């Protein structure tokens, strides 16, 4: 059974995921809008992350997987990334903080 995270646990996980950087754009995966969902699998006691990439051909999947594992050390014991492609990522998924970061870098999306 998959259940929602408590607000405190959700906040801790989101903060941890802000340490996972998209190296092409230089913005973290959370604020870039690559995290489509977080849930808890009660049967396996595992965090389930619904994550996408900016494009299906993006070469960063392995790097982001490794960074996610490192970022979640001490936050959760187990996690699983479900890579999703629908709906495809678009710039409208970027958070307001992410837009501020992009502007500070002088980029426009």
The CATH topology name reads GMP Synthetase, Chain A, domain 3
| CATH classification class | Alpha Beta
- What is the element string, with H for helices and E for strands? EHEEEEHEH
**What structural class results from the helix and strand content?**
alpha+beta
Unreliably modeled segments: none
CATH-level-2 architecture: 2-Layer Sandwich
Task: For the record, give the distance between the C-alpha atoms at the N and C termini, rounded to a whole number.
Answer: 38 Å
Total beta strand runs: 6
Going across the biggest sheet, name each strand in turn. Answer: 1-4-5-6
Q: Average pLDDT value?
A: 93
Largest sheet properties: 4 strands, mixed
The percent of residues in helical segments reads 25-40%
CATH superfamily: Fe-S cluster assembly (FSCA)
**Rounded radius of gyration (Å):** 14 Å
Note the overall shape: globular
Task: Return the domain count.
Answer: 1
> What is the helix tally?
3
Approximately how much beta-strand content do the residues carry? 15-25%
């Amino acid at each position: 059974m998959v259940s929602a995270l408590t607000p405190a646990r959700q906040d801790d996980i989101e903060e941890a995921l802000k340490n996972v950087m998209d190296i092409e754009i230089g913005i973290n995966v959370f604020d870039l809008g690559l995290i489509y969902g977080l849930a808890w699998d009660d049967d396996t006691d595992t965090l389930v992350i619904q994550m996408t990439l900016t494009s299906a051909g993006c070469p960063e999947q392995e790097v982001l997987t490794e960074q996610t594992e490192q970022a979640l050390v001490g936050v959760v014991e187990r996690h699983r990334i479900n890579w999703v492609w629908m709906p495809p990522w678009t710039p409208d998924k970027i958070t307001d903080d992410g837009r501020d970061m992009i502007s500070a870098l002088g980029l426009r999306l």
